[in-house]
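Encode chain A's predicted structure.
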Amino acid sequence: MPSKGIVTQLFFTFFRIGAFTLGGGYAMIPIIQDEVVDKRQWISREEFLDLIAVAQSCPGVFAVNISTFIGYKLDRTKGALCAALGAVLPSFLIILAIAAFFQQFQDVAWVRACFNGIRPAVVALIAAPTFSLAKSAHINFSTCWIPILSAILIWLLGVNPILIILVAGLGGYVYGTIAENEKN
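Encoded structure for chain A:
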C-alpha cells in the first residue's frame, strides 16, 4: 500500500531531478540513484540496475522511462503519470523559454562559450555513472570484454544497439541455461 502523498513526492522528486540535471537521461543516473535508492529507498540497487537496462531497451526518453517505472512500482498508474510528468515538465518549460529567446542570444560570445564549457562536463556526467554501474553489475576483468566489445561494435562498426541488446540477452539466457544444467 503506497504511503499517503507518494504521488506528490514522486512528482517533486523527479521535477527537481529534471530541473537541475544537464546532459540528458544518462547524466541523471547518479542523481536518480542517490534520490530513489540511497535516500528514499523506494527501490533496491539491484532493481535500479534492472530498471536502467529496461529503460534503455524501451523506446522513448530514458529519464521518462525510468521515472515511469519507479512511479508505477510505487503507486501504479497514478504514480507512473506523476513521476513521468515531474521528469518531463522542467525540460518542457526550459525548452519553451529557450525557444522564445534563442534567436536573440545564439550569436552572443559568452553564451557560446558557456555551451562549449558545458559539453565536456556532460561527458563526465555520463562517464561517472558508467563506472558505478559496472561495479554494481559485477563487471570484472573476466567479463569486461562484453561492454567493451559492445561499445566497439556500436561506435566503430555502426552495429545497431538493438541488435547488441538482443544478442546480449540471448547470450545471457544461453549462458544461464548452461550454468544451471551444470549445477544439476
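The mean pLDDT is 87.
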